[in-house]
Each structure stands twice: as C-alpha cells, then as structure tokens.
Amino acid sequence: MRASARKYLASIWQGGNGPRTSGHLRGMRTWIGDVNSTFLSLARVIVPVSIAVELLSRLGVIEHVAPLLRPLMGVFGLPPEMGLVWLTGLLTSIWGAAAILFTVVPVQMLTVADLTVFSGLLLIAHALPLEQSVIRSVGAGFIVTVLIRLAGAMLFAGILRLVFDATGWLAEPIQPTLSQNVFSAGKDGFWLGLVKMLLKIYVILALLIACLHVMEKTGAARLFQHVAAPLLRLAGLRNEAVEMTSVGLIAGIAFGGGLLKRSAERGQISPRQLWLSCIFLGFAHALIEDTLLLVALGADFTTVLFGRLGFAILCTALIAGAMNLAPRKPRNKDGTTPI
C-alpha cells in the first residue's frame, strides 16, 4: 500500500496521473529548480566572501584598509568601511555586498540617506566581472562599458548626496528588515551564523522568484514591459531593442543580454541600438529583485526604483544624442554600420 502511494505521488511530481495537479506541480518543480540554481550561484559567492571577510576582520586587515578608501567614500559622505563593501559588490554581486554590509558597518552608523546613496553606487556598479562578460559577448566593449558604469554609479550617488544634504531628506536612522538577523552571525558564532544566514537567504530568494513567476503567469511582467516601452524610447532605444531591453530591465543582464546576442546574430538589431541597450542595462537591470533587496536593507524605495530608472533613461538618452551628433562611419563590406 505504501509502495503504491509512493509511486502515485512520484507520478504526480513527474507530471503524470495526478488529475488537475500535474500542471501546478510542474510549475512548482520549475520554481524549486530556479530557486536552487540561483541560490547555489549566490552561495558560491557569499560563502567564500563571508569567510574571507571574517578572516580579514580577525586579522585586523579591514581596520587598516578602510582608511585607504576613506577619500572615495568621503566624497559621498559615507563611512570609510563602506568602500570595502562596494569593492565586494563590484567583484561579486549585490548579495555579496549585502552579506557583509552590517558586519563591516554597524546599523546605528547609517541613515536612510546614507544607505540610499550607497545603493546608488551598488545598483549601477556591481558584479562587473560576470555581468560585463555577458555584455562583451553581446558585442559591446568590456572596458568602455565598465568605465561608463563606474562613472554613472559615482555620478548618481554624488547627485543623491547633494540632494539629501541640501534638503535634509531621509536623515532618520535606517530600520532594516534584513539586518544582523539575516546577514550576520550574531551570538551563534561565525559558522552557525553563516548556515542560518544561507537558510534565510534561501527563503528570501524563494519568495522573490515566486513573485516573478506570479508576474509572468498573470501577465503583470508583460504589462510592465508595455509600460516601460515608451520610457525606453525616451532613452533613444528603438522598437528593435525595446523588447529585449525590457526583459533585462526585469530579469537582469544575463537574460536580456542573451536575447540581445541572439537578435544580433540574426541581424535583427543595429550595432548602435545594441550598444545603447547594453549601456542602459548597465545602469538599470533586475529592477524588481535589486530594489526589494536594498529597500529591505533600509534604502528609500522611491529613490532606488524611480531615481535609478530616471537616471538610466537620462544618461542613455544623452549618450544616444552624442552618438547621433558624431559623424557616421562608413558601412562595412557586409553592410553593417560599426559603432
């Protein structure tokens, strides 16, 4: 009896004989697969980074390195230790930076303005080795696009700091929902704290990916793309690039870049539009996931979402305008126009 029950449940899980449930379970299987693959890719970054930061902290290296980064962070009115956090984000991911943020900088040292300014740096410039490798595979130059992202990140953060200092906005202390409770070992010791942190990150990822799946199933993601299309045209992007860029805006550079690469290989997008799309995605991508994570850490929602999107549109439009003013290069023998 038990064996037959197990076989029946297995057939349901595999999309077999379970009436009305196979479709739901196929969706659940896809969801769990997406969560697991994403979590493993994050864990490969977060675990070694967390161990390295713990070792550096115990050896006193952070205390010695932080003053070297003070001038750069001082420009943005941030604690010098934030330089190490940004460096971690630049080399790994936003999650990697979030994992050490409250280990390096105590929560009580930061205001909402501080974390929002830092979010401006991190949102635009993070995971450069990985993401810019995708951009390079699409056809845009690695070094040029990296420099544009770094310059854009510092410009955006600098503008935010000037605005916050002039107006006094967001001067209250941060009240993160993901503070030491998720990203620090606390009183449990480092290793037990690391395990608990990874478990909590898994739960958060599961919720985020579930939201994305619901948006796809209900058509909300498609609706967002339709709403975003006019905004992308303001940035100088044409119809040939709008759909792929919209996907990257929601799902991230890996997804949007993959679609752009396929379109470029099929000759469905011009080199200039391809380059502009890569520039825009460097400024704004994975809009939902990145926003939810940084807001949970204590950043301001309006600035992180709409400020970043508006900055990306404006900067891309300016770059598109500059490209239009530049003299056109002669066509290649295959009929394409070089960037």
Residues in helix, %: over 70%
What average pLDDT do the residues reach? 81
Order of helices and strands: HHHHHHHHHHHHHHHH
Structural class, please?
Answer: mainly alpha
Q: Segments where pLDDT lies below 50 for 5+ residues?
A: 8-13
Please tell me what the overall shape is: globular
Largest sheet: none
Question: What does this entry look like structurally?
Answer:
- Helix content is 76%, strand content 0%.
- The longest helix has 38 residues, at 22-59.
- By secondary structure, it is an all-alpha fold.
- The protein contains 16 helices and no strands.
- The relative contact order is 0.10.
Topology:
Blueprint: H1 2-13, H2 22-59, H3 61-75, H4 82-91, H5 94-104, H6 112-124, H7 128-138, H8 142-167, H9 180-183, H10 190-218, H11 220-234, H12 239-251, H13 253-265, H14 271-283, H15 287-297, H16 301-325
Structure described in brief:
With 339 residues, the chain is mainly α. 76% of the residues lie in helices and 0% in strands. The chain is globular and about 55 Å long.
Structural descriptors:
single chain; 339 residues; mainly alpha; 16 helices; 76% helix; globular
